[in-house]
UniProtKB/TrEMBL annotation:
One of its GO terms (molecular function) is DNA binding. Residues 59-95 are annotated as: Disordered. Residues 74-95 have a biased composition (Basic and acidic residues). It comes from Halosimplex rubrum. InterPro entries: MraZ_N, Repressor-like_regulatory, SpoVT-AbrB_dom, SpoVT-AbrB_sf. Pfam families: MazE_antitoxin (PF04014). Keywords: DNA-binding. Residues 1-44 form the SpoVT-AbrB domain. This is AbrB/MazE/SpoVT family DNA-binding domain-containing protein. It comes from the Archaea.
Length: 95
């Protein structure tokens, strides 16, 4: 059983790290879910963008309304552009 030290650190058992593909330096997301602590390895930027695009597509009642249109909210537009730039840097598409 893992213990929390005085600084809030937890050492994940090696078997669990191996199973989840967590190695030294891997960034993880830690969140609360129904009274439990959930630890997940950081996902790849392409996977995040694909998931966001799928959510947008599912939320759009009329797909044609989202095609070719600009995002009107300046904060949302800036966020989307930041994500795209990050993905381009990670995938080498930042020409």
């Amino acid at each position: 059983m893992a213990k929390v030290d005085s600084k809030g650190r937890i050492v994940l058992p090696k078997e669990l790290r191996d199973r989840l593909g967590i190695e030294a330096g891997t960034e993880v997301e830690v969140r609360a879910d129904d009274g439990r602590a959930v630890i997940e390895p950081e996902r790849e930027p392409d996977e995040i963008v694909d998931r966001l695009e799928a959510l947008v597509e599912d939320a759009a009642t009329d797909r044609s309304a989202t095609e070719g249109s600009d995002i009107e909210d300046p904060y949302a537009r800036d966020h989307a552009e930041t994500i795209r730039r990050g993905v381009d840097r990670e995938t080498g598409n930042d020409e």
